[in-house]
Amino acid sequence: MSFSSLEQWWEEWQLRILVLASLGTQLYLAYFAPTRKLSHLPSFYRFLVCLAYLGGDALAIYALAALFNRQKKRECYSYFSVGGSKDLEVLWAPILLMHLGGQIGISAYDIEDNEQWKRHLATAVSQVTVTIYVFCHSWSPLADKRLLVAAILLFIVGVFRCLEKPLALRRSSFNTIVTSFHPAPRTVSTNREVELEQYIQEAKGYVDCNQDHPTLDKDGERTHSNQLNIPDKLFVDFAYIYTERLAKLKAFWLLDDENFFKALRIGISRTFNLIFTKLWQFGDENRDPPYFDNRLSYFLWLTTLTLPIISITLFHISHKQAYRGTDIKITFLLLYITYCLEIISMGTLCFYNWRVLPGKVGQSSIIVPEGKRRHITNCLSSKGLLGQFGVENTYSSKEITFLVCNYVKDGWRNYIRDVDSYWKFTDTRGHKTLDSLERNGCVVGGNLRESIEKPLDESIILWHIATDFCFYHKGTPPDSECARLCRQISNYMMHLLHDNPEMLMPGSRRDLFTDASEELKAILQADNVLLLVENRLTQVFIDKVQSKSGLFNEAWVIAQDLMKISDDGKKMWEAIRGVWIEMLCFSAGRCRGYLHAKNLGHGGEYLTFVSLVMSHGGLETFAERQQRVHLQLLPEERKKRAVQHQLPTEERVILKEAATNQEAGASSEVEIVLKS
């Protein structure tokens, strides 16, 4: 086949290939776009969804351009008129407009796409205008009238679908979502610290009265779950008023761990739908959806389900004898599959909306940084230790969430007493655990204290390495549940530092991970570790660390202090677990809600679960931390005033009159003394 004949074949089949490719891309998005919300989705499949999202528009636009050029060339080149499918090809234009509208399961791939809705609107208007112009210019007056009516109906749907996309982006833009949430009412109280103390005392009183969790019936579980499984104000950095925080705390306290975790997952799933899909929005306790946009979106969806049926029927009964058989088959495929895309997309979105799957907890390790330090990886894999030091992602989000829930509940039971302890509880990074060890008679070395006083990113690296030292040096059995969870939390914190440092804490230094990896590489390159047997590799590595100064030597000193806590290792791992839980909550309390929302588009971060546990558990979140009140009263005076505010109005009046009379009596006594 010569180049000229190949070029002629491409000119003939180019449009057909492009429209079928556009159809296939939209079919892929309809099936697989909702899977983006799954945290365990492999990166390759997530990349394919991104490629389909970006490439789908490009294919449809390219196909429209090819169609326009084909209509212009038809009058100039004779082979373009073979088959008499000119009008049939023009019928594909509104179908391509429908493809440009995308699928209901994906409106934006990144949260930044929502902010560009004006650009998408301008693009959509220009595409619709040009397509209608070419259609009117190219349609033959001799064509079947039924085919013309079918094309007009498809154009109505195509225009609606094409303009619906920027509308959905505007509805999901961050400013619009923020506006839809109920803002906290203006503060009436003139003494905010007393108001905060009152909330803490009411919450503490409720916790003390409900130490034994009552068994809820199905209606009670549903009621309390519905308070927590909605998009949270945490994602827009809104602070809850104290009455709302107390109501959420009560729901958190009464639900068992399983139902609470399920409510968390449903709430995160609904937040994903709110930001990244075209699914119309529903109101809840936290927000009012945009009424006009919601009704319009629902109307457009019903239109796309009804009008194409008429078009398909008209195409069936129209005269098609003059058209090419291949083009007739392609038109049938385009009509039927494009119509089914709406149903498929809605079905898959609902399926993944309710399917509860284990959440991923990302893992990274200094020992084997993913994709780096090939020498270290080869050394460990040759000795069969790559899996042992591995950084595979884990799905223990439920178990770790239960630990965080127990930590929050224990804080309300045994630690939080007033405003100072309430704030201190979310400011600790291991202090509470070390203080508890000392109260129980354990020796806590000064190195442990110093390690948690360092900047958070440095503390995380030191404790990450120390955790691995304790795990391998103590010969921890592989079935140790506490040790397993400690290492998973440790690796997750390293994952945040390496892959998402802005969520770990503002100002976190990713370079610390690289520096530690370089130091490890220098240590292992000194000798040929390939000659060592498996049970000697870890011990030789520890011996080499002891003889050098640096990060790993500091971590080894911390590990030695930890191993002195107990002989059996049980208390040691409980202490390590306590420190990691405190660091995890410390980081969650300092992460902006916008970052949580942004990462939902890529499967989400487990830190979002922790932040929601703290929010539902009545603790201080990022937004509330930014609005801390300056304390002026002594703790006793603040408590006294808070208790008075909790009393009924009549009792408060009596106490106020008694205090006034007491002050008046004291003044008269002073006056008598002065006269005498």
From TrEMBL:
<keyword id="KW-0472">Membrane</keyword>
<dbReference type="Pfam" id="PF04578">
    <property type="entry name" value="DUF594"/>
</dbReference>
<feature type="domain" description="DUF4220">
    <location>
        <begin position="51"/>
        <end position="357"/>
    </location>
</feature>
<dbReference type="Pfam" id="PF13968">
    <property type="entry name" value="DUF4220"/>
</dbReference>
<protein>
    <recommendedName>
        <fullName>DUF4220 domain-containing protein</fullName>
    </recommendedName>
</protein>
<feature type="transmembrane region" description="Helical">
    <location>
        <begin position="330"/>
        <end position="354"/>
    </location>
</feature>
<keyword id="KW-1133">Transmembrane helix</keyword>
<feature type="transmembrane region" description="Helical">
    <location>
        <begin position="296"/>
        <end position="318"/>
    </location>
</feature>
<feature type="transmembrane region" description="Helical">
    <location>
        <begin position="44"/>
        <end position="68"/>
    </location>
</feature>
<keyword id="KW-0812">Transmembrane</keyword>
<feature type="transmembrane region" description="Helical">
    <location>
        <begin position="13"/>
        <end position="32"/>
    </location>
</feature>
<dbReference type="InterPro" id="IPR007658">
    <property type="entry name" value="DUF594"/>
</dbReference>
<dbReference type="InterPro" id="IPR025315">
    <property type="entry name" value="DUF4220"/>
</dbReference>
